[in-house]
């Protein structure tokens, strides 16, 4: 059983003829020495353990610092990547809008050109139709004209003359 400081303080030695009992004092001192050596050993072990834990703490603190720096660098990199992606997205959108405007403008120009061509074709069709109608009317007039009958009559006469 280990002694406490109170045990040492309250220890009373019995007196012999010449004072304290020397064997009892020596025995008590031996017990104090053993306990004190045990305390010193424990203190040394605890100091070694404290030193070991301090080293681990320094190591982990170093790792924590490195990790914090890495996290900061990663966050900065992520922000930079995000900014670059935003810039690139804006450029892509701007280019797409430009292309869309160009395509719309080209389509409008083609549409106008086609509309003009259609109008021109309608005019040409109308002119052709009118000319064709005039041609047919002229041909019909020629067919309805009395000249045919005269031509027929003159041919009939020639045939008769040749036949006689």
Automatic annotation (TrEMBL):
UniProt keyword annotation of Disulfide bond present: no
Recorded coiled-coil stretches: 29-56
Transmembrane segments: none
This protein's name: Cell division initiation protein DivIVA
Compartments reported by the entry: Cytoplasm
Keywords: Cell cycle, Cell division, Coiled coil, Cytoplasm
GO cellular component: cytoplasm
Organism field: Salisediminibacterium beveridgei
Family: Belongs to the DivIVA family.
Major localization listed first in the record, in broad terms: cytoplasm
A single BP term in Gene Ontology: cell division
């Amino acid at each position: 059983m280990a002694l406490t400081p109170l045990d040492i303080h309250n220890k009373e030695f019995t007196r012999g003829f010449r004072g304290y009992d020397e064997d009892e004092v020596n025995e008590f001192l031996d017990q104090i020495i053993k306990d004190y050596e045990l305390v010193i050993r424990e203190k040394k072990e605890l100091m070694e353990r404290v030193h070991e834990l301090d080293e681990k703490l320094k190591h982990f603190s170093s790792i924590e610092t490195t990790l914090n720096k890495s996290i900061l660098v990663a966050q900065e990199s992520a922000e930079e990547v995000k900014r670059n992606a935003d810039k690139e997205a804006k450029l892509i959108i701007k280019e797409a809008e430009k292309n869309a405007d160009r395509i719309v403008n080209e389509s409008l120009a083609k549409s106008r050109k086609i509309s003009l061509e259609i109008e021109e074709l309608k005019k040409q069709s109308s002119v052709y139709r009118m000319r064709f109608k005039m041609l047919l009317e002229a041909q019909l007039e020629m067919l309805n004209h009395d000249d045919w009958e005269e031509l027929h009559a003159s041919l009939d006469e020639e045939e008769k003359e040749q036949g006689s």
